[in-house]
Design brief:
- The protein starts with 5 loop residues before the first strand and ends with a helix.
- α1 packs antiparallel against α2 and α2 crosses α3.
- The protein has about 210 residues and is α/β, with parallel strands linked by helices.
- The mean pLDDT is about 95.
- The structure holds uracil.
- The site of uracil (URA) has 10 residues, from α6.
- Uracil binds next to α6.
Length: about 210
């Protein structure tokens, strides 16, 4: 089935929680709680196309053919460190998913992403692979992360974030048009420091209480 490149998850609960998270006075604990809650709702949308098969089961009343997820388990890939905040909630919904981590930093001279950590599940070619990072800003790290996941065999990829900037969406459309993006909101633009406007600030700092 053909997929839209960008899906805005406009469920009222998602939008309501996102508005609270954007507010600068929300505490670290409050931000973390909302992120967990919102990630459960986002997980629901990003997994909508998972394929089902039927299995024969016995209820207390009778036998039936009932739907179950088909095939290999999902792979969830968190882009460190902020991706971990989204990952936790999604794992509550899909506890059997395999999990990987990709760490990238920006070289201060070349401004290009450099990989410092990469540990991903085996047999990515047979799994739906959902990459998570709350903020899609320039898209440079995401494009680099998807490059290395494709090199590791991933074919059926999706990206899930909370907020996207048009610049990052366009960068992904050019580099990886086959990877659909799911986001709770598409914001206006990036500022001169690469922050999303209006955004919610630094997602990692807000969820971990660092500054
Ligand atoms: N990363 C963040 O955490 N916030 C932004 O606004 C952009 C990138």
């Amino acid at each position: 089935m053909s997929q839209k490149h960008l899906t805005i998850i406009d469920h009222p609960l998602v939008q309501h929680k996102l508005t609270i998270m954007r507010q600068k006075d929300v505490s670290t604990a409050g931000f973390r709680r909302l992120l967990r809650e919102i990630s459960l709702l986002l997980a629901y949308e990003v997994t909508r196309e998972l394929e089902l098969t039927t299995t024969r089961i016995e209820t207390p009343i009778c036998e039936m053919d009932a739907p179950m997820l088909e095939g290999k388990k999902l792979a969830l890939i968190s882009i460190l460190r902020a991706g971990n905040g989204l990952l936790d909630g999604i794992l509550e919904m899909i506890p059997s998913a395999r999990v990987g981590f990709v760490g990238l930093y920006r070289d201060p001279e070349t401004l290009q992403p450099v990989q410092y950590y990469n540990k991903v599940p085996k047999e990515l070619d047979a799994r739906m692979t959902i990459v998570v990072d709350p903020m899609l800003a320039t898209g440079n790290s995401l494009v680099a992360a998807i490059d290395l996941l494709k090199q590791a065999g991933a074919k059926n990829l999706r990206f899930l974030c909370l907020l996207a900037a048009p610049e990052g969406v366009e960068r992904m459309r050019q580099a990886h048009p086959d990877v659909p993006i799911f986001t709770a909101a598409l914001d206006e633009r990036l500022d001169d420091h690469g922050y999303i406007v209006p955004g919610l600030g630094d997602a990692g700092d807000r969820m971990f209480g660092t500054k």
